[in-house]
Specification:
The protein is mainly α and about 280 residues long. It folds into two domains: about 1-75; about 75-275, no CATH class. It contains eleven helices and two strands; from the N terminus they run ααααααββααααα. It has helices at about 1-70, 80-110, 110-125, 125-135, 140-155, 180-185, 205-215, 215-220, 225-240, 245-255, 255-275; strands at about 190-195, 200. A two-stranded antiparallel ribbon has the order 1-2. The chain starts with a helix and ends with a helix.
Length: about 280
């Protein structure tokens, strides 16, 4: 009897255990399904987010390309490309066939220290050009720096042979010319120009170059224009002898040397105007 009751009790326990196990299994399956469903929703949401990020990234990429495209737009009007290209090739041949060989021979004969001193003298002589243009632009501090540089180099530097002012950063202002003055006054570049013997320029800077000629002591202190031109030619040879190889390196690095020189010229002028 007790054995039967025990078996009945055991049977009831087994049944209860089975029910409990079944319920636990059902609950576990429900939880598992809920977890899987949540995981799927999360993955879907993540995919949508990633797709949104990709679209946003692509939009930003296109925006960046548009921005770069704006920067790659022609920096200056160039309506006379055939003429400018012809003058560019003329100057290029003039450099490689005449100016470079002469400058190299000149540099072989004249020591570099003396060539640097000659360059310093020419720079010092043109003090009026820089000083007056500083005043015309209202750059009083820079005009004071130019005056201090000229006085120091003319006296202690033996008429400009030594650039003593180089030891004083405040006395080393950036160069100013009439082209920059016109820009400060609001004049645009105008059309791009390649000038024979002189290289890249613009209508604005070309007019400024003419105006600077009247401020250059080399032109109004010497009456004979042939002597003046000979001095200018000698100055050019001296300068080129100190930087042979720079033009060649720029030309080799450019896919289109003409476009590279044009854009580099305008960027450099914009930098000088902003200083």
């Amino acid at each position: 009897m007790f054995q039967l009751k025990g078996e009945l009790h055991k049977s009831e326990d087994s049944r209860g255990s089975l029910i409990t196990s079944t319920k636990s299994h059902d609950v576990g399956s429900s939880q598992k399904d809920a977890v899987l469903l949540a995981q799927a929703e999360t993955d879907a949401s993540k995919l949508e987010s990633d797709a949104s990020d990709i679209d946003e990234y692509e939009d930003e990429e296109y925006d960046d390309e548009d921005e770069y495209a704006d920067e790659d737009v022609e920096l200056i009007p160039d309506p006379w490309i055939p003429m400018n290209t012809g003058f560019y090739h003329f100057n290029d041949k003039l450099y490689f066939w005449l100016l470079k060989p002469v400058s190299r021979g000149y540099g072989f004969i004249i020591p570099e220290e003396l060539r640097v001193a000659i360059r310093n003298v020419f720079y010092n002589i043109r003090f009026p050009v820089r000083f007056i243009n500083c005043l015309l632009q209202g750059k009083i501090r820079k005009s004071g720096g130019e005056l201090g540089q000229f006085c120091l180099n003319t006296t202690v530097g033996f008429l400009g042979l030594a650039n003593v002012a180089a030891n004083y950063p405040a006395l080393q202002p950036s160069k100013e010319d009439l082209g920059q003055t016109f820009a400060v006054w609001g004049f645009d570049n105008g059309a791009y120009l390649t000038i024979p013997f002189f290289g890249p320029s613009s209508l604005r800077d070309g007019l400024g170059r003419v105006g600077d000629t009247f401020l250059d002591p080399l032109w109004w202190l010497i009456d004979d224009i042939l002597i003046t031109l000979a001095i200018r030619a000698g100055e050019t040879v001296n300068d080129v002898s100190l930087r042979i190889g720079e033009y060649e390196a720029l030309k080799e690095a450019a896919l289109d040397p003409y476009v590279m020189i044009r854009n580099a010229y305008v960027q450099n002028r914009n930098k000088l105007i902003a200083e």
